[in-house]
Every structure is written in C-alpha cells, then in structure tokens.
Amino acid sequence: MSSIANVPEVINNFNAYSNGTQLIGVTASVALPNFDAITEEISGAGVMGSYETSIPGFYSSMEQEVGFRTLDSDIFELMNPTSAVDLTFRASAQSTVKATGALTYNGMRIVERGRFKSFEPGTLEVGKQMESKLKFECLYFLCEIDGETMLEYDKLNSVFIVNGVDLLEKVRSLT
C-alpha cells in the first residue's frame, strides 16, 4: 500500500489565458467539462441479461462554460466560430505535507481547445458584476500536474492518455 505524502487542500489561485494572453475578466470559478462515456448495451448469446459497456476514448459532447465579470474585449476575442478557442488555466494547488505539517504547492495546467457555441451577455445592474458567459465545445483537454500529463484527450486525433498510459495506442495501430 502506497503512502500519500501530502493532503490536497485548495486551489490558491488560478489564471486563464487565451492563446498565451492572460484573460483579465474571468470570474472566480470555472467548472471544467464532464467526461461522460458513450456506452452500448450488450445482450445476447453468452450474456445473462444485459449490461452497458463504455467505449474507451468515446465521450459525449463536452461543453466548457467560462464566466466573465463584465463585457470586455477578452470575451469577444473568443467568439469567432471559424477559429479555435484555445484556453489554458494555470493554478497553484495547496497541500499539507503529512510528515511535517508544512504547506507545499503544486502547479496545475489545464489546456482546452474547441469551438465557440454560445454567448450570454449577462445583466446590467449598478454596482454588480454582469455575469457574462461564453460556451464552447471542448475537443481537446489536457491536465498536467507539476509538468506530468495526468490526462490528455483529443477527440479529433484519437488520443486518450490517462496517467501517462496511451489507452488508444493499440486501437490506432489496428485502424
């Protein structure tokens, strides 16, 4: 049994970037897209009843929503439906070292690419944030922790790497 050296706690801070340029107007939180496996019901000879099986690397539509405090140029630069949305989130994840009780930090990088889907301008109210929203279809997702690839998913190029293991390597070699 492996020992966990750190107790994960919180995200200290994060920044959002579009094509390498920092986005200033992003709100305090961004919910990352869900990975909902596409499944097929299996039944017939050799199976007692039925069950659902997932198809590795096949996920339903993955929508990413990014909120902005107010309308500014950042949000409009992402709205061109003929160009790819290319976002990078960089975060500092805080944890406590179990052996000493000291705080430590890990770098986290999330890269997403996709295509613009929708825009909600938000609400005008004196002294309040507008809560504008932009949504895009996520076609590529990368999660790195301290520079190590934990998850890389590319719908258009049949790439699905989890914890450094290329789960579709054999599939690509056979097709």
Q: In terms of topology, how is this protein built?
A:
Blueprint: E1 6-18, E2 21-23, E3 37-43, E4 50-59, E5 63-68, H1 73-77, E6 84-97, E7 103-120, E8 132-145, E9 148-154, E10 159-162, E11 165-166, H2 169-174
Antiparallel strand pairs: 1-2, 1-6, 3-4, 5-8, 6-7, 7-8, 8-9, 9-10, 10-11
Question: In brief, what are we looking at here?
Answer:
The chain has helices spanning 73-77, 169-174, and strands at 6-18, 21-23, 37-43, 50-59, 63-68, 84-97, 103-120, 132-145, 148-154, 159-162, 165-166.
Overall helicity: under 10%
The radius of gyration is 20 Å
Number of strands: 11
Percent strand equals over 45%
General shape = globular
Note the total helix count: 2
Through-space gap between termini:
39 Å
Unreliable sequence segments: none
Main beta sheet: 9 strands, antiparallel
Give the H and E element order.
EEEEEHEEEEEEH
What structural category arises from helix and sheet content? mainly beta
Mean pLDDT: 93
Based on the model shown, name its key terms:
175 residues; mainly beta; nine-stranded antiparallel sheet; two-stranded antiparallel sheet; 2 helices; 11 strands; 56% strand; globular
Would you write up a description of this structure?
It is a single chain. The chain is mainly beta and 175 residues long. 6% of the residues lie in helices and 56% in strands. It is built from 2 helices and 11 strands. Strands 1, 2, 5, 6, 7, 8, 9, 10 and 11 form a 9-stranded antiparallel beta sheet that branches. The protein has a two-stranded antiparallel sheet with strand order 3-4. The model has no long low-confidence stretch (mean pLDDT 93).
